Amino acid sequence: MTLLYDWLKKAAKAQGNNKAVVYRDNYLSWRGLLHRVDRRAQEFKSMGIKEGAWVGLMLGNVPDFVILALALSKLDAAIVPIDPTTGGRELELILAAAPLRALVTRPRGSEGSISANGTSAPVPPSTLPRSRVQRPTQPPRDGVPAITPSADAAEVRRRLQGTLLTCSVYKRSPPDHGVDPIAVLFTADSLGDPKGVLRTDKNTISGVDHTIAALGMTDKTKILIAVPLFHAYGWDLGFLPTLKLGSTMFLEEEISARRIGKLVREHEVDILPGTPTMYAELAKLPTTKKLDGNNPKYLAAGSRLDQTVADSFFAEYGVKLLSCYHSTEAATVCLEDSGKYPTTVGKPIDGVEIKITAADGKPAGAKEGLIWVKSKTLSPKSIGPFDGEAVPAARASGMVAIGSIDKGGWLRTGDLGKVDKNGRLQLTGREDDVVKVDGKRVALGEVEGCLEAFPKIKAAQATVITDPMAGAMVVARVVMKTKCGAEEIIDHCARNLAPYKVPRRIEFCDTI
After folding, report:
1. pLDDT 10s digits, 204-232
2. Could you name the CATH architecture of 201-432?
3. CA dist., res. 391 & res. 388, Å (int)
């Protein structure tokens, strides 16, 4: 369970004063990182955080995230990264699913109102997606508490020494799910609700070893982490390999093409996990030039990489983008390591198997079908505020639900795809209405439910459109009950949805 801290100690012994974390104009050596981690672990311990506790880190790509995560690892506590831009309703559901012993946040208006059972206010049924409106609360299931309001205050709330970060400690015990996670990484289920994926020491080791081998990483590798550490993509392809190898990570919290372009030029970055949208923005910078470096590997995942983006980036930087297929439940699955076929995600990396089946579970051959993954990297357990088995539409012909593992050890990913004659996988869509926007899952039904909860809207339809250079975005068509403006509707969505789920454009129509 202290796996990550053990990796830190080995790296500090081997690398000493070499750079571990670089952030803006500052850096921490491996020895300095270990020293800060030990101090924070002692501070957490004085707050009563012990082995097995689940602790949330609601932080972005800053050194404090790395330090606090490793401090929790030393205490044998489970790390629960949470997107700091998470909306109120989604945060309610996350905290109901994950009984946190403590939550570390930056200063924010709502932090003082989060209660001991993880909620700050009742979850208004009007803000729930249509599939959830009729059952806004659920009985406890598998140790997960119901979503109910509570007036209980935090047991302890204090500033972490020398920072503006607040650590709120609650009287909550860790759940018993039959596994001891080192981390709980959140994604979205097939209805758009938060789904916590429990990462154990075994599947973490398998995942990072597979990634290091596939990318040929060493302790000399320089990794720029501009994708969020609180999402599995940044965690798996940035944080973990750096820690295991004792290499150098460059953290960037501001997703700015100009800033990222400056970093890759100045530091000769070897590994850059990114999204197609990020690379499209980089390709449009007016001051681009060819990059030096020894075979840099710039990865594109989270949505389909358009040939136009791949060609534009190569023309400007002289680096071929490598399409990657990654999921929170299975870590890295496929990699197109030649850069010649960017519209596919390549072949499965060593140690990973995939299969394509029809809706009845039979082999699909060369046709499009359901994608299944089998690997030692699969997480053994997922949690959420609602039971996936209550969603019959997520299953077909008696098969396991989307995001679940069958008796044969195969994960039903929910993605659709086909394999070409050379064994390369091409992603073609989803079984459900979940789409990816800049690498993050969005359930269109959730967006539609939020829109229809607005009193002035009679009906709504959400879709995603993709521009080769601007990426994917949510747009909505609505039928009004009473006259209203697009700004009103977008403001309503912004109050109830995460920023990336909010429609970028509203189209008014008479019928849908």
Report:
1. 999 999 999 999 999 999 999 999 999 99
2. 3-Layer(aba) Sandwich (3.40)
3. 6
